[in-house]
Amino acid sequence: VEIMFPCLLLLNSNNHLCNHSENGIQMTWDTSNEQPEVDGCAFLQRGLKKLQDAECTAKYAFFCMNIIEFLLVCQKETWDGALEYCQQLNNDLASLSTMERINSALLEITQAETEYVWTGLRFLAGDWFWVTGDNLNYTAWYQNEQPQCPARDLHCGALDKQTRVWTHRNCEEKLNFLCQNKVMKQTDS
């Protein structure tokens, strides 16, 4: 996605960026000139990581992006139990289908109480797949060797906290797990 600057941002009543989940991302105002007169709109200028006051009638480019947020659950569950828990929150077990997602996940799992953390990786009908439906183009298996025919009880994927790679584990093992939440951020370009 190419981001065009400056871009218009809509704010909620607490001056947080609005998003689909109605949570906000805290950003600071550029107060180098004067205190902003907040009327619900602001813009972010390239190179400046602070909000600038803007008239809501001003015309700026905006863009849409999906942001994946991870939530570490420090409760021990089987793989199926972890999947059910995440889905009850309208989420899914985490798909670590890119290096960026793995890096984000690694930041989250530092507080895990188990050596391994369940992900949404599963082996079924001869193939590994992400329960979210994401492609399995990027892989992070130990020594880059995807298990081709894992033992019957090793059909669930986890992230190893120490080695930072995927590993296949017994699905009945009780581990902490990562849920993911897809947040839609909308802007226009």
What spatial form do the alpha-carbon principal axes imply? elongated
Order of helices and strands: EEEEHEHEEEEE
The CATH H-level superfamily of the largest domain is: Mannose-Binding Protein A, subunit A
The strand count comes to 10
CATH architectural group of the largest domain: Roll
Query: Percent of residues in beta strands?
Result: 25-35%
SS field, number of helical segments:
2
CATH topology description of the largest domain: Mannose-Binding Protein A, Chain A
Which structural class do the helices and strands define? mainly beta
The end-to-end distance, rounded to whole angstroms, is 10 Å
CATH class of the largest domain: Alpha Beta
- What would you report as the Rg, rounded to the nearest angstrom? 20 Å
Number of domains: 2
Q: What are the low-pLDDT stretches, counting only 5+ consecutive residues below 50?
A: 1-26, 185-189
Biggest pleated-sheet summary: 7 strands, mixed
Overall mean pLDDT stands at: 76
* Residue share in helix: 10-25%
Organism: Sinocyclocheilus anshuiensis
Domain C-type lectin: 60-180
Pfam families: Lectin_C
InterPro entries: C-type_lectin-like (IPR001304), C-type_lectin-like/link_sf (IPR016186), CTDL_fold (IPR016187)
